[in-house]
Design a protein that fits this description.
The chain is α+β, with helices and mostly antiparallel strands and 162 residues long. The chain is built from 3 helices and 7 strands. The relative contact order is 0.28.
Length: 162
Amino acid sequence: MKLHGLFIRGIFRSVLNEILRAQNECSDFTAYLQPYAGAPIKMLRDNPPTFGSPIRLYLSTSEQPATVSFTADIVGWKDKTALSDTEKCRIERIIEKYQPEEGGLYNYSKVTDKPSLNLVLVQRLIKLPSPFCVTNLIKQSDGKPYSPDQASPGGWSKVRLV
C-alpha cells in the first residue's frame, strides 16, 4: 500500500451502500465510482493503482461532506472516453446489476464541453465504525489540513492522514 491516499468528498451514501451489499455477495467485487469532472485525477492517471498495489481512498458522503465515513482501496483507474465498446458494455452490465444508483456510465461533468472521464475502480469498501473529521487529512498540495468548511460535494485531493 502506498503511503498517500486520495480523498473524494460527497459521494452519495446510496451508491456506497450498494457497493457494500455487492461485496457481501462477492468479497472480491470491484466497484466503480465516477467523480463528476472533466479533468483526470492526475495521481491515478500518472501512477495507476493496481490490485497488487492499491491506493487508499477516503470518502465522505454528500450528507456529511466534512466527515470521512468510508475507506476503500483504489485498484484501478480508467479514462471513460477511451473505453472500447466491449469494455463499456461489460462495465454497464456490472453497474446495472450491482450499482443501479450509479445510473450506468454517465457524463455529468461540471465543466462545459469537457466529458466526465474518471472511472475509479475500488475494492474493500469499509464503513468506518468511528468516522473522523476531514481536518485529519493533510493535503499533499500545500501541507495543510483539509477544510471542513467546504460543504459542497465533489472534488478530490491527494492526502495523507495526520
